[in-house]
Amino acid sequence: MGVYPIVLSQTKFTHQDNLDYPFEERGLQFGDGIYEVIRIYDGNYYLFTEHVDRFFRSADAIRLELPFEKEQLKTLLHDLLKQNNMKNDGIVYMQATRGSAPRDHVFPVGVEANVYAYVKDLPRNLSNLENGISVITKEDIRWKKCYIKSLNLLPNVLAKQEAKENNCYEALLHEDGLVTECSSSNAYLVKDGKIYTHPATSRILHGCVRMAVERFANELGIPFIEEAFTLADIQSADEMFLSSSTSEVLPILNVDRKPVNNGIPGEITRKLQDAYQKDANISNRKTAQQ
Ligand code: PDD
Predict the structure, then answer these.
(1) Is the entire prediction scored with pTM above 0.85?
(2) If you measure from the C-alpha of residue 220 to the centroid of ligand 1, how many angstroms do you get, rounded to a whole number?
(3) Domain count for the chain
């Protein structure tokens, strides 16, 4: 429940409800930091190494020195679950910024990163998993280093808000008609038994679930083609789906109010959902789709 956030280094963010924030904090003032969201099932991390590796990659990419090695961070994150006696489905949110220092665009000297993590319950959204979701399309106006999981999420926030105002779950982003990903998930199209998705370039976040989806596809003998699809391709798509740590694998049934596959979740999407549940050790549960 996030009752005992863990403070991973020098910081004043000792409690979520502590209002004594240092205003001159680089995450707050510049978005100068990175984050991760790690899924938890039954109190166990899912795709743990993948998330920790990406956290370190993001830190490297913005030249942020983390005050611990990977193995130390892993131990701290396991302790966080123990301290909170976490046994449920949930997430850990973890963030690192370039620290607290007088406001100046250049990096502060001799200032340690502020790092914290907290745990929260998050039940699986069985209704979305079973019934699928709708998306709108939006131009991708983000910067050119989307592979970094940076705190600068304003374009993502605005796109997702617009999706919500259109009774949709997500915004499917495109650059001149080439689909990159969604505002907080990766996007896929299925055509003639093959999965298409934007290559893992700097234009998208390299999703941990995306990596798992590629693995599932390989195991199932379904071609996984890293080739961007276009908005025009959507009209003749057999299936579409998205993936993320909080959403898992979700059927996309409408794009800009037009149905995909007559608005029915596709067969390959269902196979990937099953593979996900097996991989996450949750396939024994009674879910809406079984
Ligand atoms: N979002 N693309 C974007 C832009 C994302 O923000 C995310 C994750 C993903 C999927 O990544 P992963 O499979 O590693 O969760 C793709 C997280 C969940 C968030 O910001 O809440």
Answers:
(1) yes
(2) 24
(3) 2
Q: How many residues does the chain have?
A: 290
Encode the chain (290 residues) as per-residue pLDDT tens digits: 345 555 555 433 333 344 345 678 999 999 999 999 999 999 999 999 999 999 999 999 999 999 999 999 999 999 999 999 999 999 999 999 999 999 999 999 999 999 999 999 999 999 999 999 999 999 999 999 999 999 999 999 999 999 999 999 999 999 999 999 999 999 999 999 999 999 999 999 999 999 999 999 999 999 999 999 999 999 999 999 999 999 999 999 999 999 999 999 999 999 999 999 999 999 988 654 43
- Scanning 6-153, the segments in alpha helix (DSSP H) are 26-30, 48-61, 70-83, 126-131
What separation in Å is there between the alpha carbon of 54 and the centre of ligand 1?
A: 11
Our answer to whether residue 149 is catalytic in this structure is: yes
Give the HSE-up count for residue 86: Cα atoms under 13 Å, Cβ half-sphere. Answer: 30
Question: Does the beta carbon of 246 sit less than 6 angstroms from any atom of ligand 1?
Answer: yes
Q: Is 249 in the pocket of ligand 1 (CB under 6 A)?
A: no
- Sign of the Cα torsion 192, 248, 146, 140 reads positive
* 130 and 272 inside one domain: yes
Pocket test for ligand 1, best of 184, 198, 249 (most atoms within 8 A of CB): 184
Cβ–ligand 1 contact at 187 (below 6 Å): no
**Same domain assignment for residues 71 and 150:** no
Nearest CA to ligand 1 atom 2: 185
DSSP-based three-state secondary structure for 70: helix
Domain boundary among 96, 121, 146: 121
The residue range of the domain holding 235 is: 126-279
Distance, C-alpha 249 to centroid of its chain: 12
State whether the beta carbon of 247 lies less than 6 angstroms from ligand 1: no
